[in-house]
Here is the input.
Amino acid sequence: MSKFKRMNKLFAVLLVFSFVAGLLGTAMPQAAYAAEDEIQVDVKKLISDIEDKDAKEAVLRLAAFKIIHGKEDGKYHPEDMVTREEFAKILVTSLKMDTAVKAGLGFTNFKDVEATRWSAGYISIAAGQGLIKGYPDGTFKPANQVSYAEAVTMLVRALGYKDEFLSGQWPANYLAKAGEKEITKKVKFADAYGFANRGDVAIMVNNTLDAKVVKVVEYTAGAIKYEERDVTLLEDKLNIEKLEDVRVLANKRIDDGLEEDEVRIRIFEGKKKDEYDDKEYDFVGDVNPELVLGEEVNVYLNDDDEVIYLEKKTSDKAYFDYVQKVIIDDKDNEVKKLDLVAADDDYEFDENAVIYYLDGDKYKEKQPGKDGIVNLDRKIFEGKVGKFVIRNRKIMYAEVMDMNEAYPWLIVFENKDGMLKGICADDDEFELDLSKDGNYDGVIVLDLEGYQLDVDDIEKGNLIYVQKQEYDGDDYAVVRVVQDNIIEGKLDRVQDNKVKVGKDERKITYWDNENNKPKRTFEAYYSIDDGDEIKQFDPDNSEFIDDMDDADEE
Here is the structure.
């Protein structure tokens, strides 16, 4: 094992080109549409200023349901306070009554709400439905900030509750009912009269959608009897159906037999999830199945049975990863385990796992046997990259790239209108033509999460994996782009397959050659002269050690 401790003036600049595997983040659509005028929302920008996990998940779902969107700069601004008129709009949209807003324009129930005010229609509808009330002096105070007590009261009313249903004094009676219905779950406020921020409002509105609605069933001697229905606000007002225990299997890139707007999902039945039904659904244009391929999700369908949102669950861990070793079953010489870099261990396959691998120019599907052993050649996995979904320490899903067009990767030094130049494992002057009139009928470019990029988004220093596959009967290049694969700065430490530059420590990937020499092949390069000369990273190599020693003497 080679080990170099911190060295003074070791490098002014060190460039390490390495595959950076990692746990994939929260799934979100590429874009969503919100509000009655179909404003396009950049969802990535929308949640870029949200740190709280619960608020982020709530905003993602509400944006997909067209209930909320960002401010003028496209960001959500979770710490900003919500005004009474803003809350009226959210409330009306959540109940799918926003189509009647135009009809409400020109009418006002409150003397301080002008008929021409942008919120007049929302306020008129919400007041007409008994969801909101004004003040004794006949005003609504639309620009005033809404308190937690007021927000909670309006949300409880949205479920069908009325003042006469609840005993006790306001706001304690409404706060108690909100707690019972889990409207305030994951929201903490010390003062019910304090003002509600946009992050908390998103969480409370999101919780309300999953609460059961109530209806009046009987009037007896002046008393009102109501009962809870077995239907959520989401189902009752938005006509959205929620499918749970679902795994996303394929889109058209994986299965060319699907349409552009189709996705195949696996719906599990029973607690053991050993029974399932595979179905195909159309999805609306802003849904991106790439982000959750192989993962367990909640699927939301509109009244046309179209997928409008794929909600990632936390039970799975998804990685775009590198297979550094294949462990073979001694008995049958078949694949037993994969040693993954980012997941940082070796993993067996679940017997219900789904594996997609490239055979020629098309993906094939494979499932393990009941013992989790996979009857495939080890070369399909060895030294390859792809998406791996792990649950309870077993691989549930694998999509393995072939990397057949720039084997096994390409470090890009130049991108001129789609003509890429760079280095790969055995060619220091490799060229790849991804231009419109180049070698392929089309090009699909994705980052590691699954967001779609343009060829022009591939930058100098990016590491890419490329395979050719059939798509709609044509030859396509499918490109995965690693965008954070450069560490630049003064070297702090190199220890075996780990390198630390400043505060940034990375694990350099390699794959085992078993009995071959060299035993390990490292998938990284380094430079000590600002990129003029680039060499392979290999702590086992004497030239690498000499470079470290020479630099230490500077």
User: Anything to note?
Assistant: The longest strand covers residues 345-359.
